[in-house]
Write a structure and sequence with these properties.
With about 210 residues, this protein is α/β, with parallel strands linked by helices.
């Protein structure tokens, strides 16, 4: 009994484990990490690995293979519409469950002409306000810090950004299962429709 309880607890802990990506940008470049719970695995830039040089082998002449001609079923317009609906539903579920844990965006406005720089600073502030309002309509943002600054002595605009977005494993499984079920149902309907169309065609030919 104790073993079952421990197993259930472990499964529940795995299901609520957050999985996602963390991206950051500053003057040093772009960083991308894969987030698994408290672990972070760097994806970009990749670490350089010294690999021993391998000797190139002479390529053997390719042997001709017999081509097998298979009839490919083409997607019809209604199939494309149905697949598009499935994709949009999956994106909607992703948007509902996606959590933006961290959102950082700092913009330092600078330039050669002080007048143009001040005008650009005002436009950037207004744009950030509009952007945040729209993001809050579609995403859950837990921790945000977005600001613009004005530097009349600098010559170049500077941007520092960081975003971390995660999903829990059970949410990923839910989205995957719902999407797979919708695709399977569409495939079954398509097979039945094609079979009915073939039977109707063969019946007309026999008449």
């Amino acid at each position: 009994m104790l073993g079952w309880i421990i197993a259930i607890v472990i499964v529940l802990l795995v299901l609520i484990l957050p999985v996602g990506v963390s991206a950051a940008y500053d003057d040093n470049g772009f960083l991308l990490h894969l987030k698994l719970g408290v672990l972070k695995i760097r994806l970009l830039p990749r670490r350089e690995k010294s690999r021993p040089k391998r000797k190139r082998r002479a390529k053997e002449p390719a042997q001709p293979k017999e081509k097998q001609k298979k009839e490919k079923q083409r997607l019809r317009l209604r199939d494309i519409r149905e697949l598009l609906r499935i994709v949009l539903r999956a994106l909607h579920r992703l948007r509902v469950h996606l959590s933006v844990d961290v959102l950082r965006l700092y913009i330092t406005v600078a330039g050669d002409d002080p007048y143009d720089t001040v005008r650009l600073y005002g436009a950037v502030n207004a744009g950030l306000g509009i952007m945040l309002a729209e993001l809050h309509k579609v995403l859950k943002i837990r921790d945000e810090d977005v600001a613009a600054d004005l530097d009349l002595e600098a010559q170049q605009l500077q941007i520092t950004a960081k975003i971390t977005a995660t999903l829990q494993i059970w949410e990923i499984l839910l989205i995957g299962v719902c999407t797979a079920a919708a695709l399977l149902a569409w495939h079954i309907r398509r097979k039945k429709q094609d079979k009915a169309a073939r039977e109707c065609t063969s019946g007309k030919e026999q008449e």
